[in-house]
Design a protein that fits this description.
With 357 residues, the chain is α/β, with parallel strands linked by helices. It has 15 helices and nine strands. The chain has one domain: TIM Barrel, CATH 3.20.20.210. The strands form two sheets. Strands 1-4-5-6-7-8-9 form a seven-stranded parallel sheet. A two-stranded antiparallel ribbon has the order 2-3. The radius of gyration is 19 Å and the shape is globular.
Length: 357
Amino acid sequence: MNSAHQDLRNDRLIRALRRQDVDCTPVWIMRQAGRYLPEYRATRERAGDFLTLCKTPELACEVTLQPLDRFDLDAAILFSDILTIPDAMGLGLSLNEGEGPRFARPVRTSADVESLIRPDPESDLRYVMDAVRLIRRELNDRVPLIGFSGSPWTLATYMVEGRSSRDFSRVKDMIYREPSTARALLGILSESVSLYLTAQAHAGAQVLMIFDTWGGVLGHAEYRYFSLDPIAQIVEALRADPVAEALPIIVFTKGGGQWLPRIAQIGCDALGCDWTTSLREARRLVQDQVALQGNLDPAVLNASPDKIRSAVADVLADFGPGPGHVFNLGHGVTPGIDPDHVKVLVDSVHDLSRSPS
């Protein structure tokens, strides 16, 4: 079902990820379908709860497309949650407003790890694949569709802690006291994420992204062993699949600016950067081997339209001339943002980066 990107009416994102010339810098936004949009809130209310919204392909498709109807974005990103895989492993996921995700059955021992199933994407996670197929059909090649997964380390943090954490004490205790148990868990998750992303590619995703949200909490050596190596295994598995190997892969480690050269060597096409990293410095560090995505501080969207436009100009200037930049926030858009400010952001990226005709 994956058509060549030349069939897309707007292929700026694919071209930028391939470090090819574009008429202007492409832009999409992490969490672009979310609570800041009144239409999203209405659909979520209709769904009844967040998990039902994620697990109903028609509703997931609806909210995926909502921001594209409002803003001139250059990509759609599958509406889903990073915890779909551990949920399908039977850990008893609940998501309640104001307290974040919780698992009724966290993974704490080697026996817990050994009992984990590897979810079959087309049966245990069929709702995600059905959503991908439906979104691709509804997009009708308007813009590319980004599929995604949480990284093994990020998924492990929730599975071991049992909930969101400030200090990650339980999962860090595991990597230092029982590194073999941690490695076994991450091995299962690497296989599961590889299968999941490969299935998304076969269902119609045109770009794949790995969100390593909590890689930045690890020490320097630990990052390589417990976060980057599992991600590298996933990239290798995707490159071995005849469909997935053709798709650009983005890896984003929040708080990982110091490891960009190392991440660039694992075979991905683009690196996400948060707002603590200079794109100019990032380009120097990776020697333009890969594209860069980012990296406006989401808090800037609270500022005036003039300030947003100025901040966009600063990010574009920081990256500088040449191909290989995808504009994004350094993390997800926050719930209280005025949608009109997001429109200013998107339009400013295109206006300020457009090549003179």
